[in-house]
Automatic annotation (TrEMBL):
It comes from the Eukaryota. Residues 27-196 form the Phosphatidylinositol-specific phospholipase C X domain. GO terms for molecular function: phosphoric diester hydrolase activity. Signal peptide: none annotated. This is Phosphatidylinositol specific phospholipase C X domain containing 2. It comes from Sander lucioperca (Pike-perch). PANTHER family: PI-PLC X DOMAIN-CONTAINING PROTEIN 2 (PTHR13593:SF32), PTHR13593. GO terms for biological process: lipid catabolic process; signal transduction. The lineage of its organism: Eukaryota, Metazoa, Chordata, Craniata, Vertebrata. The keyword NADP does not apply.
Amino acid sequence: MKTRPAGIGNVNADWMGSLPSKLSAMPLKHLAVPGSHDSFTFWVDVHAPVGPDQKAYVKYLATMFSVLAKKVMVKWSMTQNLTFKEQLDAGIRYFDLRVSSKPGESGNEIYFIHGLFGHKVSDGLLEINSFLSRHRKEIVFLDFNHYYAMDLEHHVYLISMLQEVFGSKLCNNCAVEGITLDYLWQKKYQVIVFYHHPSAQDIPVMWPGNKIPAPWANTTEPKKLTQVRKQAKDGSFHVSQAILTPRVNTVAKGLVWGLRNYLVERNLPTIMSWVEAQRPGMDGVNIITSDFVELTDFANIVIKLNNLLADSSTIVG
C-alpha cells in the first residue's frame, strides 16, 4: 500500500453528508464538487506493452527504446499520486476513467489506461464500493469517457461488472434537475455512472455522456483555462477541467522532469487562483477536476465554494 502524502487524511470523507439541509435540497448540478483528471494513474504497469490509446510513433519508440521510453512515459502519463480510497478520503467525488482491453490477452478483462496500462477496472470499482459502503451519504460520479481495443463483448462485460459491484447503489438515468442529495439519500443511490458508448443506451443505470459535458481547453497556458465555458446547460451536470495539457514540444523540453514537475507545479498558483474565484449555483461551476489533487488543498477549496450557497438567500448566479 502506498504511503499517504503529507497533509492528506480523511477530513473530507463525509463532506456531502455534512452539508446543511439547504444545500442537500438543491440540485446536485448547482453544487461545487471536486474531481480528479485521469483518476486512476496513481499506478501504471511499465512491464506491459504501450497502450492502444497511443499514436503509432510512440509505440514504435517504446518498442525500440523500451526501458528509457517507458520511464519517460510514466512521468507524463501519471496525473495522480493518490489511490481511489485516498482520493475519496480527501473529498474527491468525480472520477475521470479511461479503459481498455489488452490486445492479445484472452478473455474480456478491462484495465485503466493512459499511455500505459493501470490496474484492473474491477479492483478500482471494488475499492470505491468499499468506501461507499462505509460512507452511506457520499455520492460519486464515474465518468467512463474513453474506450480502447474494446468490442461489444468487452462493453457487455464492463457494464455487467458495474451492475454487479454497485447493485442498488446505482442511480437510474433521469432528469438532472431533480437529482438532489436528499433524493439520492432517500433512494439509497450513491453512484452515477456515465457511459459514453451506444452499447449502454438501453440500460437504465447507465447515463449518456451528453449529460456530463467536460470542455477541454487543450492548452499549456493557465490563463486560457478561464476561456472555457464553465456553466452547465439544461439537463446536464458539467465538468470544468482545471488542467493543463502538454504538447509534443512541451514533453520534449521537459523530458526528464515530467508532467508534475515541468507543467503542473509551476502553474499551480494561477490554476488555484482561478478555482478560488469560481462560484457554484445556477450559472456557476459544478464539478471541477485537477491533476495531482494532493499538491494543494484542492478538494477542500472546491468544497468550501458551497459556503457561497449556504450564505446566500438564493442560488448564486
